[in-house]
């Protein structure tokens, strides 16, 4: 473990450093993904095992899958990454072959993935693992992967895993961590905020922060309805977070959502927020814990104009009132839409650099931790984060196995026990609910409520007959 | 989580406190056990699931399974335990239902158990988990359990799990954590060292330590051959320990071992050490890493007279030369026997209280950490620990399923990447090898070598024809 040369060291950005430093036993800082595949027709009995074998037989591991934390005394203060030589990467450790107990349903899968997502990554190795899971009902198998947030954000991780699959059943596939020569230069627009952040020095941050936050705390005439941090009501979503996680999933049809958006006069994202709002309201009601005032969600959003339905990259971060105090679904939708509109206009009024800094500082779990100060002990800056990540548009395959769904699994932090993130994939919105186990005993039900909420919206907005 | 009353708080002993305080991400301080069961004839398909169900339906949880660490600022310095009310114990978290991927052999079981043993326990809950594992070849299933060393030592944990099984196929069984009214007072002799330790105050330790260690560091005439701490040669067993574990197992027939002991003129424990020595020698040779001088094992031993073959409770702790530098098995056996004899006599010469303190300070992983100072960075006080734990003498059953084997899984610490522990059960010695993954890539082979070493000893001592 000592043969790595100095040249291979990479200084980490302030942001990535923070992801390492704020990690505790109770709040691991890795992001996860759950992919569900259907076995191809006439798949041999060792189909899954052969995938595991191929995954472990990777000749050359590419970045960031070959990066680990440097382990020096100095690195405890200022973490840096080093590249691990291929012959030191123990792929039989990183790639696991797991199985579900009988009957191998969504329940058993949810339990396994919840436990896998609860476990800290080994800091003496590259910071990722991949678990190929056999025994899933109806001729399916699953792959759960996780990676430290210091190596990649959700969008990058999604792209890394999607590019390893093929768009044809018999097309080429490879392990996501296998080194590939780049075929062409990608446009780097997708990750503007992170790119800017990586370049900022410690000296530049205070000025940027001042620019970004000062307008938020000056109450100007006419801006009464702009939500600001720490206006969120206390709730059971904002208690202590311990290390056990609970993961639940739901798939929503994007065509159905678009029809609702059109009928209701809002964006696809407004519909998604309304679905989440309804699910949250029902869940909190069932626990006798619904606050009188609206729950506030932190929402990374696109700043494109209304009418643009694409689930594109978030380049702004807003506080949105979810209208959870309202029992009428139409009123709730109107409240969400109005709140988002006001917040977007506010954000647009900021100078561009301040907007990016603002987005950065408020959209990342690290920032949430820092903002919440003592975590569960102070008033929550918001009740939860609801994000969407653009995913692959076309059906993908792994050795002929069709990717049926791909769910993001994210990071709860102290004082923010729930995260809802969705990924678009081939006409479906794949929603991942990630919660701290003790705060969210009914998380599976909340996912079910989300599915029912879409039907309710279709009904009240006349998309389907009541 | 805040309803627990003050009365339920229990001050921890200095020793148990140490187990909590020395724990790091790389060196979890939990002990484990792996039980292998054969399914009873005509077991229904949901036999294992019904066990999981019964395990989760425990009306009242008994000590120490209802104890968790108190989470106050003061408790970070001086940890204490609190009793968790039954309605706060989430048994569906503590009891897990797992499965092995096809073909469900010892290899797949070993991989799963290795990963489970690598993971830290959740400090916000009672410090144990139990994993019921289905899908083991040849109509078997397994149970892997783990518990923090601050709650119980190996002997106590073994007794807790054995008492929950029945001695008849149709006898009563219950979850090990279920509260039972004590039927009769047990004699407390089995845990003398720990009991004494629990009573010692911080003020008494320095005097006891002086009594115990001063004689060790005075070289007296005629005591040249007594091994002392830090005489062990550097070896690959004494490098850095990281959090991933590797677990391997072996069963040795105790009748065969007794015949060798008789023919060779030693104890059963001498034979066990000779088996370990041979396995270690072959493993290190295969890695071109066999030290010129003998490996030194820390061995908790009974101080009973020679000829007494019982694997009874360790009440002394010795440094034993394993003779790994010798190629002849007979010479190796003689070296081990001689070294053990000298060490036993030396230990017997200490005053009783000093002997107990000495045992305590040297036999526990905590002590190893403290003694080794900077862990992997200093000369090892010994190369590894080899212990035996007395287990059940008669066949045990769980709902009619026969317990085929029960393996102890122990704790490597910084600078001590390997632990070998055995448990006697119904005429077999069940040996668990627990290693740090990176230090011991060939651990499974070492377990195989141990089996072959017994045959070699039978041959050289004429128990079976060459």
TrEMBL record, chains A, B:
UniProt protein name: diacylglycerol O-acyltransferase
Catalytic activities: an acyl-CoA + a 1,2-diacyl-sn-glycerol = a triacyl-sn-glycerol + CoA
Pfam families assigned: WS_DGAT_C, WS_DGAT_cat
All residue ranges annotated as the O-acyltransferase WSD1-like N-terminal domain in the record: 12-272
Organism expressing this protein natively: Aquirhabdus parva
SUPFAM superfamilies named in the record: CoA-dependent acyltransferases
Listed GO biological process terms: biological process involved in interaction with host; glycerol metabolic process; response to hypoxia; response to nitric oxide; triglyceride biosynthetic process
Entry GO CC: plasma membrane
Record field: transmembrane: none
UniProt EC number: 2.3.1.20
MF annotations from Gene Ontology: diacylglycerol O-acyltransferase activity
Record-linked InterPro entries: Acyl_transf_WS/DGAT, CAT-like_dom_sf, O-acyltransferase_WSD1-like, O-acyltransferase_WSD1_C, O-acyltransferase_WSD1_N
């Amino acid at each position: 473990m000592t043969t790595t040369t100095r040249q291979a060291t990479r200084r980490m950005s302030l942001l990535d450093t923070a992801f390492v430093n704020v990690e505790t036993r109770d709040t691991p800082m890795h992001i996860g993904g759950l992919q569900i595949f259907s076995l191809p027709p006439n798949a041999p009995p060792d189909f899954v095992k052969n995938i595991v074998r191929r995954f472990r037989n990777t000749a050359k591991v590419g970045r960031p899958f070959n990066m680990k934390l440097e382990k020096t005394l100095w690195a405890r203060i200022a973490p840096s990454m080093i590249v691990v030589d291929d012959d030191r990467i123990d792929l039989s450790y990183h790639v696991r072959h797991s199985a579900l107990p009988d009957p191998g349903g969504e329940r058993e899968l949810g339990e396994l993935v919840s436990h896998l997502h609860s476990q800290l990554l080994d800091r003496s190795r590259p910071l990722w693992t991949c678990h190929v899971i056999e025994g899933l009902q109806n001729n399916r198998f699953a792959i759960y992967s996780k990676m430290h947030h210091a190596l990649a954000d959700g969008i990058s991780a999604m792209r890394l895993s999607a590019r390893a699959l093929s768009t044809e059943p018999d097309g080429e596939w490879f392990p996501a961590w296998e080194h590939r020569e780049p075929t062409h230069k990608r446009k780097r627009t997708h990750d503007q905020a992170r790119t800017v952040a990586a370049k900022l020095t410690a000296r530049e941050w205070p000025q940027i922060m001042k620019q970004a936050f000062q307008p938020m705390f000056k109450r100007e005439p006419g801006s009464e309805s702009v939500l600001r941090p720490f206006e969120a009501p206390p709730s059971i979503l904002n208690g202590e977070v311990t290390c056990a996680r609970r993961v639940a999933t739901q798939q929503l049809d994007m065509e159905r959502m678009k029809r609702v958006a059109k009928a209701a006069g809002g964006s696809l994202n407004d519909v998604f927020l309304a679905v989440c709002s309804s699910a949250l309201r029902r869940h909190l009601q069932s626990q006798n814990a619904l606050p009188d005032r609206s729950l506030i969600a932190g929402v990374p959003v696109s700043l494109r104009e209304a009418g643009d339905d694409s689930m594109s990259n978030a380049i702004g971060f807003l506080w949105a009132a979810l209208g959870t105090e309202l029992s009428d679904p139409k009123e709730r939708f109107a409240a969400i839409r109005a709140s988002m509109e006001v917040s977007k206009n506010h954000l647009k009024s900021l100078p561009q650099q301040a907007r990016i800094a603002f987005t950065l500082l408020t959209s990342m779990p690290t920032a949430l931790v820092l903002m919440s100060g003592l975590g569960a002990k102070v008033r929550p800056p918001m009740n939860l984060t609801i994000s969407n990540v653009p995913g692959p548009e076309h059906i993908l395959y792994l050795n002929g196995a069709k990717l049926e769904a791909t769910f993001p699994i994210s990071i709860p932090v102290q004082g923010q026990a729930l995260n809802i993130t969705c990924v678009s994939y081939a006409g479906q919105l794949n929603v991942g609910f990630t919660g701290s186990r003790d705060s969210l005993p009914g998380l599976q039900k909340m996912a079910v409520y989300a599915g029912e909420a879409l039907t309710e919206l279709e009904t009240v907005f006349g998309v389907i007959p009541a």
